[in-house]
Amino acid sequence: MVESDVVFTGRIIRLRRDIVRMPDGGVSQRDVIMHPGAVGVVALDESGRVVMVNQYRHPVRRPLWELPAGILDIPGEPLATAAARELAEEAHLTAARWDLLVDVLASPGMTDEAYRVFLARELAVIPPSRRHVGVHEEADMRTRRVDLDEAVADVLSGTITNAMAVIGILAAATARAGGFTSLRAADTPWPDRPTPGAPVS
Fold first, then answer.
1. What are residue 111's phi and psi, to 5 degrees?
2. Would you call 138 a catalytic residue per the annotation?
3. Does residue 53 surpass a pLDDT of 90?
4. Are strands 27-34 and 38-43 parallel, antiparallel or unpaired?
5. What's the Rg (C-alpha) of the chain?
6. C-alpha to C-alpha distance for 148 and 6, rounded to whole angstroms
7. Which range has the worst mean pLDDT, 10-14, 52-56, 135-139, 173-177?
8. 0.85 surpassed by pTM
9. Which of 77, 86, 90, 138 is catalytic?
């Protein structure tokens, strides 16, 4: 690294401009979107249905069917706790069984954004009186349960296009085909997790 500066700070992301020395000795500029990271949940019920949420996404100007998910915006919050919080807030569900499904680097050519997707099972519905009340994009969020095979078909047909949902659904179907023996513990270390505010190496 020859030089590095944060040139923009927004509500969630920051933009860092790096001047990097290349293997041939030359230098080149790389613009990096710094992101706090996120967690998502493939919540699979006893009938083999995955819980999906419908949320408006401003950058693409339309609502998308997605997994319950959210950014890591509470310092020190354990990852599985963050995932359980998002499942409760967005889908009004709790889960007694949690496993690690897949870790993803979202687009490593331009951002350090990484997200971890959990598999949640043994679901229970949160009573209406104890439910989180959503605001902004979450205010009119809808949920539905889709058979996992149907969700896979929706991915392959282009009906489901949210990247986390695509990856999580296909990973869940693959894990199920192997009898869920490939799953890792929910507290498995995550070396790619972004560290907000960390010095640039």
1. -150, 155
2. yes
3. yes
4. unpaired
5. 18
6. 42
7. 135-139
8. yes
9. 138
